[in-house]
């Protein structure tokens, strides 16, 4: 028998307990052992719950219980769960966590502490999609060329509604929150931070790269408007918040931002709250993973798969794919050196010579314009939408500053990267 302690009995923790009960036969058959929830840890013991498991509000009741084999950490946050998980590992317990923010900051320290102890985290990225096991096991013969993921359901829900229904940002965010997919602080979803946490976890497995969220480019979807959507439609793109990890020689590019993606690509068809991840391996080619990235049962499905793997006696070390950080020899590419195509939205004065000035600025930075669209003027200002051929981020940032200095440019230009 395997006994588990669940720390944090919210939506996911409740689903874990329920599924362990409702799917007991198949889980027991696959694990080769019975799995029992010995205790759950909650903040508020007086709250009514739908499950019947022994509860405590003292985390040490499970961390110090010699009968508990696996700690399931579902608390959320960073520093508090870090202390809890560390103590669990120091007490010799296996750990399963769904906590992407914890891993974004402390995955390498925890890997050190875990040593040979199982430390599993399938549910931390893309909820029910077994992407961690796909990278760590299924694709382990490959050099990973790129990972492109829609790994935040809330942002994808908002962008899908804006694309398909012409909806505005704020009311759709409210809907997504009501549906229960958003983080406690929804700026994590729309600001790209939640996707960045997940991307860093994937990049560790694929590239052995040790990075923190502060090290990488993170842009959210707050500035997207219907003008951008109409450009996307006009030129055969859809708009997605992407997490991108890409090997470029001895470097790894890591970035999270809204991106224009050609409508024919599979990832462009991942709509609503669903998640989708394209992984290209040098031998296998492109593989694609699709499924629910959030929600109690979907996330619990991933948590329980980890519990079953541990019950079977599988060793998960090294959890991040490489024995030590940077053993792969790859380093993070500087943001300024990223090369991609761009889309720009400019509010300009509608008068002779303005286009010439805009294209002069682009020419000075050696940026070549690919397409251009002018929306009808409202008053004396027109909206100019243009896309460029590939150029370095540095050149684009300089061009944006120069454009904003022009008299004829009325507002700070908006830029969105294009991922062809
Ligand atoms: N807030 C996350 C999302 C939940 O919207 O995808 C799962 O991590």
In a few lines, what is going on in this structure?
This protein has 420 residues and is α/β, with parallel strands linked by helices. The chain contains 14 helices and 18 strands. Strands 7, 8, 9, 10, 11, 12, 13, 14, 15, 16, 17 and 18 form a 12-stranded mixed β-sheet that branches. The protein has a 6-stranded parallel β-sheet with strand order 3-2-1-4-5-6, sandwiched between helices.
Write a structural description.
- The chain has 420 residues and is α/β, with parallel strands linked by helices.
- It has three domains: 2-120 and 296-313, 3-Layer(aba) Sandwich (Rossmann fold); 136-291, Dihydrodipicolinate Reductase, domain 2; 337-418, ACT domain (Alpha-Beta Plaits).
- 36% of the residues lie in helices and 27% in strands.
- It contains 14 helices and 18 strands.
- It has helices spanning 11-22, 24-31, 60-63, 79-90, 100-114, 131-138, 153-165, 169-178, 187-190, 193-207, 226-234, 296-311, 354-364, 393-405; strands at residues 2-7, 35-41, 55-56, 70-73, 94-97, 119-120, 144-150, 217-218, 237-248, 251-262, 274-281, 285-292, 331-332, 339-349, 369-378, 381-388, 391-392, 414-418.
- The strands form two sheets. Strands 7, 8, 9, 10, 11, 12, 13, 14, 15, 16, 17 and 18 form a twelve-stranded mixed sheet that branches. Strands 3-2-1-4-5-6 form a six-stranded parallel sheet, with helices on both faces.
- A hairpin with a 2-residue loop joins strand 9 (237-248) and strand 10.
- Helix 2 runs parallel beside helix 12.
- The longest helix has 16 residues, at 296-311.
- The chain is elongated.
- The N and C termini lie far apart (51 Å).
- The chain binds L-homoserine.
- L-homoserine (HSE) binds next to helix 7.
């Amino acid at each position: 028998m395997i006994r588990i302690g669940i720390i944090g009995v919210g939506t996911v923790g409740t689903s874990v307990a329920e599924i362990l009960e409702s799917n007991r036969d198949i889980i027991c058959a696959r694990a080769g052992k019975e799995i029992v929830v010995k205790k759950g840890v909650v903040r508020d013991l007086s709250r009514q719950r739908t499950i019947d498991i022994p509860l405590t509000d003292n985390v040490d009741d499970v961390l110090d219980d010699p009968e508990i084999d696996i700690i399931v950490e579902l608390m959320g946050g960073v520093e508090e769960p870090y202390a809890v998980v560390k103590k669990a590992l120091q007490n010799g317990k296996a750990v399963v966590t769904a906590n992407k923010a914890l891993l974004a900051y402390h995955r390498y320290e925890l890997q050190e502490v875990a040593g040979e102890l199982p430390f599993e985290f399938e549910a931390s990225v893309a909820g029910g999609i077994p992407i961690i096991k796909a990278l760590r096991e299924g694709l382990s013969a490959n050099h990973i060329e790129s990972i492109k993921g829609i790994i935040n359901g809330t942002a994808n829900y908002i962008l899908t509604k804006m694309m398909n229904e012409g909806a505005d940002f704020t009311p759709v965010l409210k809907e997504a929150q009501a549906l229960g997919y958003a983080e406690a602080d929804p700026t994590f979803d729309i600001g790209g931070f939640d996707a960045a946490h997940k991307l860093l976890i994937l990049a560790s497995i694929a590239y052995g790269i040790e990075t923190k969220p502060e090290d990488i480019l993170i842009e959210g979807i707050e500035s997207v408007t219907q003008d951008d959507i109409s450009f996307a439609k006009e030129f055969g793109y859809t708009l997605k918040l992407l997490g991108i990890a890409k090997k470029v020689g001895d470097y790894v590019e890591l970035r999270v931002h809204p991106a224009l993606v050609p409508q024919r690509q599979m990832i462009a068809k991942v709509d609503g709250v669903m998640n989708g991840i394209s992984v290209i391996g040098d031998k296998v080619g492109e593989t694609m993973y699709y499924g629910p990235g959030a929600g109690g049962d979907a996330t619990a499905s991933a948590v329980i798969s980890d519990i079953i793997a541990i019950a079977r006696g599988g060793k998960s070390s090294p959890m991040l794919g490489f024995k030590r950080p940077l053993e792969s020899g790859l380093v993070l590419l500087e943001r300024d050196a990223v090369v991609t195509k761009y889309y720009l939205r400019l509010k300009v004065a509608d008068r002779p010579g303005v286009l010439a000035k805009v294209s002069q600025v682009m020419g000075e930075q050696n940026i070549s314009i690919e397409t251009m669209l002018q929306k009808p003027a409202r008053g004396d200002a027109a909206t100019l939408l243009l896309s460029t051929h590939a150029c370095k981020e540095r050149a684009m940032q300089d061009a944006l500053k120069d454009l904003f200095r022009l008299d004829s440019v009325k507002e700070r230009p908006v830029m969105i990267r294009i991922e062809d």
